């Protein structure tokens, strides 16, 4: 395994820990971390239910925290690690924050905006480009989501 892949997996493990916190709180288990120069800048997990905020996705919350920590709404030189391929809202925030690189775990065939439903980061009309790496610990990331929804279905059915 090359050094870049090892670094990506290390940070995805941190994002997975955040996803676990979301699941424990009854939220869809998605976690995100933002890294700059090899150091953690911010981490977050999904919280739309507990926050009563439809925009409280892991990526949005991590971007807000990273911008506050950096003292700048532009996050040049950063990498965002997230356990699930971002939706259109989060992809837009990634672009506006000027994040350099996105690394995601599981693809989202129903709403992914990086490679699955849309390829927003490949649109050359935009004034910022984001390098995208998908599938990092994808099976583990996908299983945490599948397990969460499998358990929800069991709870609903008598």
Give a short synopsis of this structure.
The protein has helices spanning 3-24, 48-51, 58-70, 88-97, 138-156; strands at 31-36, 39-45, 78-84, 101-106, 131-133.
Give a structural overview.
The chain is of the alpha/beta class. The chain is built from five helices and five strands; from the N terminus they run αββααβαββα. A five-stranded mixed sheet has the order 2-1-3-4-5. Helix 4 links the parallel strand 3 (78-84) and strand 4.
What characteristics describe this protein?
globular; 5-stranded mixed sheet; 158 residues
Number of strands: 5
Q: Note the gap between the termini.
A: 46 Å
Q: Identify low-pLDDT runs.
A: none
Rounded mean pLDDT is 95
Secondary structure: helix percent: 40-55%
For the largest sheet, list the strands in their spatial order. 2-1-3-4-5
The secondary-structure element order is HEEHHEHEEH
Secondary-structure class: alpha/beta
What is the molecular shape? globular
- Report the C-alpha radius of gyration, rounded: 15 Å
Strand content: 15-25%
Q: Please, how many helices?
A: 5
């Amino acid at each position: 395994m090359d050094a870049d892949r090892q670094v990506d997996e290390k940070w995805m493990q941190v994002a997975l820990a955040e996803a676990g916190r979301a699941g424990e709180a009854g939220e869809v288990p998605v976690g995100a971390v933002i890294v700059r120069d090899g150091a953690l800048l911010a981490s977050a997990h999904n919280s739309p239910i507990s926050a009563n905020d439809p925009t409280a996705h892991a990526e949005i919350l991590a971007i807000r925290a990273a911008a506050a920590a950096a003292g700048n709404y532009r996050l040049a030189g950063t990498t965002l690690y997230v356990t699930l391929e971002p939706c259109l809202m989060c992809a837009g925030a990634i672009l506006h924050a000027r994040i350099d690189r996105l690394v995601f775990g599981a693809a989202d065939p129903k709403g992914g905006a990086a490679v699955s439903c849309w390829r927003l980061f490949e649109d050359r009309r935009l004034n910022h480009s984001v390098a995208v790496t998908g599938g990092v610990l994808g099976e583990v990331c996908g299983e945490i989501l599948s397990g969460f929804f499998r358990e929800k279905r069991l709870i609903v059915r008598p």
